[in-house]
Q: What sequence folds into this?
């Protein structure tokens, strides 16, 4: 799959063309192109570009959602290649999109890549309340909690969730990573998160570092 085909896949995501994105993904897999190359060279650049345009006010939420749907359709064909069993489980990761936010593209990519790297992942979905995060942390044995917020208006839910974990006496049980379009390292530091994931690869790398530090 040459650069032109990756470019076409990127364009299909930006255009929100679900049919083309699926056809190109299926064709690439049939050609023996690694699933990770399809993801990193075609799908991710497309969703990053539409996210950038959304942030600049050049496209609006409906366009972003349609692009997300085109990406989700393509990703469904890649998941079996990332979800292979790992001989030794890396760690346990709890993930979800915070209360008030129903966006899950970035979260789903991170979850898929974590599974492909041997992590056991529990996905709480979207619009997850601080109470539900606390309940999951209390009842499960997780190493890292990953929380996502796409909108500036829902970033406060990241802070509220960490505060809820503190109030419940659960904060010490788990390392916390946050991410999403408006999130920054400065904000992560401000609210007391252990790490900030810029993208899926960055999240995986930092999750592994958090796990290594916790097991020392």
A:
């Amino acid at each position: 799959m040459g650069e032109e085909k990756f470019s076409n896949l990127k364009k299909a995501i930006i255009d929100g063309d679900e049919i083309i994105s699926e056809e190109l993904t299926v064709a690439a897999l049939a050609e023996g192109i690694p699933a990770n190359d399809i993801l990193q060279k075609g799908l991710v650049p497309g969703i990053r570009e539409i996210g950038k345009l959304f942030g600049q006010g050049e496209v609006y939420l409906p366009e972003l959602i349609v692009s997300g749907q085109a990406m989700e359709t393509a990703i469904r064909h890649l998941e079996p290649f990332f979800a292979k069993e790992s001989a030794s489980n890396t760690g346990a990761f709890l993930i979800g999109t915070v209360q008030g936010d129903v966006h899950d593209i970035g979260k789903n990519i991170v979850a898929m890549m974590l599974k492909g790297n041997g992590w056991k992942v529990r996905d709480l979905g979207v619009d997850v309340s601080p109470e539900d995060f606390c309940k999951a942390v209390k009842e499960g044995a997780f190493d890292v909690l990953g929380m996502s917020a796409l909108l500036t208006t829902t970033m406060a839910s990241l802070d509220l969730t960490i505060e809820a974990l503190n109030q419940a006496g659960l904060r010490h049980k788990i390392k916390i990573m946050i991410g999403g379009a408006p999130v920054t390292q400065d904000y992560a530091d401000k609210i007391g998160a252990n790490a900030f994931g810029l993208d899926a690869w960055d999240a995986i790398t930092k999750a592994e570092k958090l796990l290594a530090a916790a097991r020392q």
User: Anything to note?
Assistant: The chain has nine helices and five strands. The first strand starts at residue 92 and ends at 97.
